[in-house]
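User: I'm preparing a small set of examples for a lab meeting where we compare how different chains pack in three dimensions. I only have the primary sequence for this one, and I'd like the structure in token form so I can line it up with the others. Please keep the answer compact; I'll paste it straight into my notes.
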Amino acid sequence: MQNYKALIERYDKSNMLALLHSFPEQCELALEIALRYPLHLKKKTYENIFIQGMGGSGISGVIVKDLLQNMCKVPIVVNNDYALPEFVGEKTLAFFVSYSGNTEETLTCFRKARARKASIVCVSSDGKLAKMCRNCIRIPQGKPPRTMLGFLSLPLLVTVARAQLLKKPLALNSLPRFLKRELSGAERAGKKLAKNLYGKIPVIYAANSYQSLALRFHTQLAENSGMFSHWNVLPEANHNEIVGFKPKEKSLAFVFFRSKDETDRMQKRFEFTKKLVSKRSESVEIWLKGKTHAERLFYGILIGDFASYYLALLNRKDPSDIKNINALKKTLSR
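Assistant: Understood. Below is the structure token output for the 334-residue chain.
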């Protein structure tokens, strides 16, 4: 089952493994692009930050909210819909993220926000969005959006900092070096996690401040591995979901993303929840390495990405194949 070399040769037709290995360099280049991009923002007092994106592009907004919500001077709202919230207007710093530049939900909201005279920054590789947006941070094109997470998320973080909306500096300079150092360890952890989850339905839990990590792993399991999973965050899950645990859930495998920045109360919640589910189901803890919130978050994302990749191979699936999404796009284009 673990002869990965033969499985890689047979199923990884687009060499996704190379893209995973290049993620630290991607983050390094993404920071360079974002820092040198000539922003054209009017000097004004913003009342909120709005981030629009879908799928592999949309997860960038959740990452920004996780990392900045406790240090940003204004609220951050993430949107994944056709409808633009009514509060978006002249005092909004609005981000529109679409790797292809042609995501219809994002284009719909972009046009509405532009009509309302919001300050707009886009992140895209090409397409209609790149052509319509004056402030478009252009990133390399031609790859699956979910493999371009560094390019799709880090420019947003840098731009918020450049707009002077943070209460304290955001430490990102060390992130690429940290990821390079931890890459091989993250891959080993991902392989081990894949073995734990093979043949199971994963249930993913993280602290609320790592919501994007749980969501990212959930979506990567779907797109890369072809697997259904469930995710939630603590403490919210402790107020409802734990009541629904059944005594014979042997088909489930629980994944707990843990971090040294947990409070005493959160530690107790994780321990209680793990003890409860471990009575009948397999469970595993993934402890996040890193000195900063950003390092721990992206380290966890790396582990999840590698786990989803190796699960794809174990499931005899090409990790780049997304037939159902392509079929939906074809239907919508008629």
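A couple of notes for your slides: The chain has two domains: 37-172, 175-314. The longest strand covers residues 201-207.

User: Perfect, thanks.
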